[in-house]
Design a protein that fits this description.
globular, alpha/beta, 40% helix, 5-stranded parallel beta sheet, binds manganese (II) ion
């Protein structure tokens, strides 16, 4: 029997009441999971939680909405960076209109991008709400590593620029319900698409999303592309494999 290979490039494992159970579940289902964190100070506990897992990987993050409050953790970020290939959640969030807050976010994000560029082989999952243009600019066209724009909701013109710069896009179950989904699919090449849940921030009914809910995205893509779910899953899993093995 064909087993559908699922993977989740953006999942907040540490925000669930029983993270170990979710690690066990992902291992049993052979679902690859990038366990993002929002501050460097929680990276080590997530690292411990995933230490024996074959499928769940901890990511080092500094969430833009916590950037002002946690800017003193930037040296810790730098210290921990050699211990992981995965970086997230990082990025910019310009829902705030506070100029100082935005400036601090940009300073931190630029430093993170520079540190990752210098290491050369990192995989970043990046938040860009209302700051899509600034995020794509900060990463630039020659970044040494791989970048996934997570839950992209910005202008299509900026998405085109991101495609041109070689960036990936991860799609979650909340995105498939939006009108923008079809617009994005029309301009992003299939080989640049990946899966995510952003659980627990994405909900399925009244419960937080978990990695296997990426099947909802597969189902929606199968309808859009007139392909079987197995074919879609295979296509996206190939993208994921490629992302992991691509040289910087
Ligand atoms: Mn997130």
């Amino acid at each position: 029997m064909f087993v559908m290979r699922l993977f989740d490039t953006h999942f907040h494992l540490d925000l669930y009441p029983d993270p170990s159970a979710l690690v066990t579940e992902a291992d049993q289902a052979q679902t690859y999971v990038v366990a993002v964190t929002n501050t460097p100070s929680v990276f080590e506990s997530t690292q411990q939680l995933t230490a024996t897992s074959q499928f769940v990987r901890p990511a080092l993050g500094l969430h833009p909405e916590l950037a002002v409050e946690r800017q003193l953790e930037l040296p810790l970020f730098e210290h921990l960076l050699p211990y992981t290939r995965y970086v997230g959640e990082v990025g910019l969030d310009f829902v705030t209109t506070d100029a100082r807050d935005r400036a601090i976010q940009q300073e931190i994000f630029r430093k993170i991008v520079a540190l990752c560029h210098a290491s050369g082989n990192k995989i970043l999952t990046v938040h860009s709400r209302r700051a899509e243009k600034e995020v794509v600019q900060a990463i630039g066209p020659t970044f040494a590593g791989q970048v996934i724009l997570h839950w992209y909701s910005g202008p299509l013109s900026v998405a085109r620029q991101a495609v041109e710069n070689g960036l990936y896009f991860s799609l979650n179950p909340a995105m498939v319900r939006s009108k923008r989904f079809a617009d994005l699919l029309a301009i992003i090449p299939r080989e640049r698409l990946l899966l995510e849940t952003d659980g627990p921030f994405v909900q399925i009914g009244s419960r937080p999303a978990i990695p296997k809910d990426t099947a909802i995205v597969i189902r929606a893509l199968a309808v859009s592309w007139h392909m079987s779910e197995e074919q879609v899953a295979q296509t996206l899993f190939t993208n994921f494999r490629q992302l992991l093995t691509l040289p910087a």
